[in-house]
Amino acid sequence: MIQFHHVSLEYPVTRTLALDDLNVHIKKGEFVYLVGHSGAGKSSFMGLVLKRTLPTRGDVYVGGEPLRRYRAGRTALHRRRIGMIFQDNQLLPHLTVTDNVAFALRVTGVPRREWDGRVSASLKLVGLEHKKHALPVQLSQGEQQRVAIARAVVGEPPLLLADEPTGNLDPDNSREVLKVLQNVNLRGTTIVVATHARELVETFRHRTLTLRRGKLVRDDPYGGYAL
Ligand SMILES: Nc1ncnc2c1ncn2[C@@H]1O[C@H](COP(=O)(O)OP(=O)(O)OP(=O)(O)O)[C@@H](O)[C@H]1O
């Protein structure tokens, strides 16, 4: 699903070496944590997978061909096939839960007749069908993050990237979000979660990649937080 082949990334202006000769292979259907101290390169890793940036050296593959060979149209299509979740849920405050989730279908051109079925399946997956008419402000932080997950997966992306998805949440809500992500993974979606949440990584064990100053220093198939 994702392959990094001798990938280095140096940001041009500051000449920061954010990633240093990374070799990683993430298979279809895996659930992988990406851990590391602040500045270790986690967001840079995500940016490369999305092709927001290109590596200075090496190649990133998501499927067959290196991303650097994709032209604009294919890059747009590539990004549409990746679900994203951030620390800040980025819900649209004036739209209901249903409309927030449906928004993702509208922008990707899914026919209107498919929206209702897809949105309710997605809200069911995150356990929030009963809140479908609520506005984001009427939900807890954890519920809002679950809506963000519903929105990220409603288009059935094969790959989901989550950058600090529990950063704003208390321990109970964090665990709920992790359980939902695991359910999404059980349906076959490949998931990469960048996180500082030691307790979650220790509790819900999955393969864990540890970055230190841009280098992959550990790849633990059974998980564990080694910082
Ligand atoms: N646009 C940029 N221009 C220059 N340097 C950058 C840029 N983005 C990140 N960096 C630098 O690259 C390194 C890796 O940053 P990155 O954001 O990938 O780390 P991170 O592990 O996601 O950190 P955090 O946990 O704080 O989000 C850091 O030294 C950072 O200062």
Structure, described:
This protein is of the alpha/beta class and 227 residues long. The chain has a single domain (30-50, 71-220), classed as Rossmann fold, CATH 3.40.50. 33% of the residues lie in helices and 25% in strands. The protein is built from seven helices and nine strands, in the order E-E-E-H-E-H-E-H-H-H-E-H-E-H-E-E. The chain has helices spanning 42-49, 72-80, 97-107, 115-125, 141-153, 171-186, 198-203; strands at residues 2-11, 16-26, 31-35, 57-61, 82-85, 159-163, 190-194, 207-212, 215-220. The strands form two sheets. Strands 5-6-7-3-8-9 form a six-stranded mixed β-sheet, sandwiched between helices. A three-stranded antiparallel β-sheet has the order 2-1-4. Strand 8 (207-212) and strand 9 form a beta hairpin. The longest helix is centred in the last third of the chain and has 16 residues, at 171-186. The relative contact order is 0.20. Bound molecules: adenosine-5'-triphosphate. Adenosine-5'-triphosphate binds at residues 11, 14, 16, 18, 36, 38-44. This is Cell division ATP-binding protein FtsE. GO terms for molecular function: ATP binding; ATP hydrolysis activity; transmembrane transporter activity. It is found in: Cell membrane.
